[in-house]
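An instance follows:
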Amino acid sequence: MSHPFLLRSALLPYCVYISSLFFISLASWSVEACPKENTTCVQVQVKNVKNKPLQNMVVYIEPLMDQVLPQQSKTVEISQHSKSFIPYISVSQSTSTVNFVNQDDITHHIYSADSENKFSFKIRAGKTDSTAQFNHAAEIAMGCNIHDWMSGYLLVVDTPYFAKTDEQGVASFTLNELGKYRVVVWHPQMQAENNRMIIEKDLSAGDIITLTLQKDMDDIPVQKSDDDFDFLSDY
């Protein structure tokens, strides 16, 4: 569902310059205001260098004052479909279940060479595999040993407060407690240190934090073979 928003003609209250990578602005205007009855709602908006909203940017919020965090019980599903990872980026809270689901009619050999989260397994057509365990925060690049153009990412975080931005570049969160948090925006194609933008702030009800990139995003790789050759499903 889209979130229509209205930009005020006045300047934003203030803007803080952080190195040469990005600006962070804290705005009083709302893209679609949090409901008044939701007293712990905060929103984050991400924009590109042309001040346009960026969709599918990962935003997560980490507590800095020992706030109690719930455990996210949702199972994350990473599909192999049309010889691609779908979605290209998945996010999971550490210790949550991650299911790899092969929706193709051929075998895939999914792997990651990450030293702490290394895994490798074949997954037959129509099968699901959840044997890979991700108990620690990590940025995990994934591939397929059979189809080397396939690429995807799993971001594992230690917080249940994570989301991807919508068409208006907005991610909304309902926190258990307000207080000081670290707000992080991440994308593997972001041209910034560790592919992240970070701000620490005391969050109040109805806060909107707007982060604007100061460099263009790198291109997302196309998950498509350069030729027509493929391996048989009985690999």
Residues 1-30, 231-235 have pLDDT under 50 and may be disordered. The chain is about 0% helix and 40% strand.
